[in-house]
Design a protein that fits this description.
The structure holds two protein chains of two kinds.
Chain A (H helix, E strand, L loop, with lengths): L18 E6 L5 E7 L10 E5 L10 H9 L3 E5 L17 H17 L6 E6 L1 H12 L5 E5 L5 H9 L14 E4 L3 E4 H10 L5 H9 L5 E6 L7 H8 L8 E5 L10 H19 L14 H17 L3
Parallel strand pairs in A: 3-4, 3-5, 5-6, 6-9, 9-10
Antiparallel strand pairs in A: 1-2, 2-4, 7-8
Chain B lengths: L8 E2 L6 E4 L4 H7 L10 H22 L1 H10 L14 E2 L2 H4 L10 E6 L9 E5 H13 L1 H4 L7 E5 L11 H7 L6 E4 L5 H17 L2 E6 L1 H13 L10 E6 L12 H11 L8 E5 L8 E3 L5 E3 L3 E6 L13 E7 L8 E14 L5 E10 L3 H19 L1
Parallel strand pairs in B: 3-15, 6-7, 6-8, 8-9, 9-10
Antiparallel strand pairs in B: 1-2, 4-5, 10-11, 11-12, 12-16, 13-14, 14-15, 15-16
Helix pairs in contact in B: 2-3, 9-10
Classes of the chains: A alpha/beta, B alpha/beta.
Chain lengths: 312, 388
């Protein structure tokens, strides 16, 4: 598939420029949002919100944002509340409901303040669970794409931490939980919220998605230790929803970017799927252009610097 | 830019589930962390080397007309017995010819050597080759230490990303900023030295670990400055010093590496000389060779290394000095089957660091008229033949 480089159709000023916005929530908190514009002269394809995985920063989505902007999308990213970055709150207080509240606030802002027309979500890992619920509760999302998206929180956390956390008694919970050897979360509030908000079980996700009628395309990694493809397939209920699809990535674990060849294949495929969905088709469109290695590394470095300046 | 055209393998009749398989044997090896390649036995590593280099040889025969013509003249197209039969491209050839195995549209950039003497080499890289280069660096992280992307910062004694053009060494060093928070400062004045010392202290306060990277002569200059200032940087076990690039310019002669490490350890107040590692790369080689804790440079299994006899170009026995040759399967941009201008040795088996594998010792640049002439002649011959 021969593809064009975008560099000939976009000025260096446009290419990869990141604009920042701050959303003030009703309760006085701030959510920091990054926007990157479409850089092709093709017809604009609408807006996509990228939701980061747990403990991932906005610049971790730099390459995905590039693929989408190079192919006509306006892309927004945000740092969740009670997370690592510049938005209000600290990671210690993260709960599933705080993550969901933040995503909803950004979606409402995009529809209300930004008056976007077509709006899709690309959600990765834990934020996919929020996106699945949002698609059930809101009626202003046009399509959803997920990458290694969590559908069965209880099973995923059991694999991550080695214990069935949901089955623990409240009184016996450790005060803190450490993710990836360094990120400390206040355990009991997370646990209580997961029960109160009905976040734990995969059957809940399945039930919530049963009432959703927008197209969903999920990417799952075959060697993922945390999110298994069969869980995603069960949640999507493919036999009951012919408009949904599942792509299984061979040779990849949860960290899809570890193998750049796999990551590139997924980015091309995901971008093509998004182009198709935004156009109202039930099939992907051909991806017209890809960023080069140099453009990717320059964008990552630029966003790392921006993030460091902001303390995000 | 050409992306892989991946025909989905539909796994259900309704076409709702499909499998995307972009894996290759070499990428799986380079980017795997379970286990890292240096956790494999020597036997398994050598089996992988043989398979991957043969596949790369076939790829370049098919995609590089210059290389194909060269191979046809040298050994015919009958195929090879052992890897040592693969005709070598002298690094000199890159000074005279543009050698590429990919269409121009896929070349990210032509990179050149630092060019301390005479003509510089010009060598292409495509996206896949560059990603594998980065992968070769990332995959040896375990040889150095387990740094978290957000937990370690870098002080790079060289130009920052925006000041790097096509000089390979500087370009490779600048890529580190895509992984870690980086201060890039060239130590060319007293003010620069002050900034470097300040950056080291600031980053030590902000991060768990600090990597200081640069050519040996820059590192040595910084050490002299730190000594003059009473060794103000307390590196202890948290600093790793990476040296890369030419050793001669430290003093204009062969440098005593042990003495250099002792100097660096003292100047940065390091706990151990194991925190000072040298890495080897050149513009014509797509992989980076890192030292382990006992200062042996381990060769990843996608690279075949063999020192050669200067007269016959046949491989010399392990431990014996010869002109270094590399067959690097990670490169798709050009046939990375090169005869270098360094003298070195190879040993294989278990290293004192506990890992099995192949290690090299790059001893010095080729200096004798006979040996240098061999490489020079090969380069000119190759270039002349390509022009025919």
């Amino acid at each position: 598939m021969q593809q064009d480089s975008v560099s000939s159709t976009a000025s260096s000023d446009e290419l990869g420029r990141v604009d920042e916005d701050v959303i003030e929530t009703g309760d006085g908190r701030r959510i920091v949002v990054w926007r990157t514009c479409a850089v092709t002269r093709d017809a604009r394809r609408g807006t996509i919100l990228l939701a980061p995985g747990f403990c991932r920063r906005m610049y971790n989505l730099a390459t995905l944002a590039q693929y989408l902007t190079f192919n006509g999308f306006e892309v927004y990213r945000y740092d969740p509340l009670n997370h690592l970055g510049p938005s209000s709150g600290v990671l210690y207080d993260f709960t599933m409901s705080s993550g969901y509240y933040g995503m909803n606030a950004v979606l409402s802002w995009l529809r209300g303040e930004r008056d976007v027309d077509s709006l899709g979500i690309v959600a990765t890992s834990l934020s996919a669970r929020h996106a699945y619920r949002a698609c059930g509760e809101r009626h202003d999302i046009d399509y959803l794409l997920t990458a290694v998206g969590v559908t069965h929180l209880r099973a995923t956390l059991q694999r991550v931490f080695g214990v069935d956390w949901a089955a623990c008694e409240r009184e016996l919970l450790a005060p803190t939980v450490v993710f990836e050897d360094k990120h400390v979360i206040h355990g009991p509030p997370f646990w209580e919220d997961a029960y109160a908000g009905d976040w734990w079980e995969g059957t809940t996700t399945q039930r919530e998605l049963d009432s959703v009628d927008i197209p969903i395309v999920a990417f799952a990694a075959r060697d993922d230790d945390w999110v298994q493809p069969h869980e995603v397939e069960a949640a999507l209920g493919l036999s009951r929803h012919r408009e949904r699809r599942l792509c299984e990535l061979a040779g990849s674990g949860h960290n899809v970017s570890q193998n750049p060849a796999v990551a590139q294949a997924m980015l091309v495929s995901m971008t093509g799927e998004a182009m198709g969905l935004a156009a109202g088709f039930d099939r992907p469109l051909d991806v017209k252009s890809e960023p080069t290695f140099t453009q990717i590394t320059e964008q990552i470095i630029k966003e790392r610097r921006l993030s460091a300046r902001e303390g995000s | 830019m050409t992306a892989r055209c991946l025909e989905p393998e539909r796994t259900d009749a309704a076409g709702q589930v499909w499998v995307l398989d972009a894996t290759t044997a070499i990428d799986t090896l380079i980017f795997s962390d379970s286990p890292y390649w240096y956790g494999l036995s020597l036997e398994v590593q050598q089996e992988r080397t043989d398979r991957l280099v043969r596949a790369a040889f076939e790829f370049h025969l098919e995609n590089c007309p210059l290389f194909r013509a060269y191979v046809e003249r040298e050994i015919g197209l009958r195929g090879i017995g052992s890897l040592e039969e693969i005709p070598l491209v002298s690094t000199r050839a890159f000074k005279f010819s543009e050698i590429s195995s990919v269409p121009a549209s896929m070349i990210e950039q032509w990179y050149r050597s630092s060019g301390t003497s005479g003509l510089t080499s010009r060598v292409p890289r495509d996206r896949r080759s560059l990603e594998r280069l980065v992968g070769s660096v990332h995959s040896v992280a375990g040889l150095l230490g387990r740094w978290d992307d957000d937990g370690a910062a870098v002080v790079n004694l060289g130009p920052g990303r925006e000041h790097v053009d096509d000089v390979w060494f500087q370009y490779v060093m600048s890529l580190i900023e895509a992984i870690h928070e980086t201060d890039s400062i060239i130590p060319s004045s007293l003010n620069d030295m002050e900034r470097i010392a300040a950056a080291c202290k600031r980053r030590l306060a902000e991060y768990d670990d600090l990597i200081i990277a640069g050519p040996p002569f820059y590192i040595a200059s910084v050490c002299d400055f730190l000594e003059e200032r009473g060794r103000p940087v307390q590196g202890e076990s948290r600093i790793t010093v990476l040296t890369a690039g030419g050793w001669k310019r430290v003093a204009g002669a062969d440098v005593d590496r042990k003495a250099f490490r002792a100097q660096v350890r003292q100047a940065f107040n390091l706990t151990s000389e194991a925190q000072i590692r040298d890495v080897f790369n050149q513009v014509e080689l797509n992989s980076v060779l890192f030292e382990c804790s006992v200062h042996e440079k381990h060769v990843p299994p996608w690279v075949h290394v063999a020192p050669r006899d200067p007269d016959t170009l046949l491989p010399v026995p392990d431990g014996q000095l010869g002109i270094m040759s590399y067959l690097d399967a990670s490169c798709t941009a050009f046939p990375c089957f090169i005869l270098a201008e360094d003298l070195g040795t190879v040993v294989r088996g278990k290293c004192a660091c506990g890992r099995e594998g192949v290690r090299v010792d790059i001893v010095r640049r080729v200096e004798t008229r006979a040996a240098k002439g061999c490489a020079l002649t090969m380069g000119r011959l190759h270039a002349a033949r390509q022009r025919q």
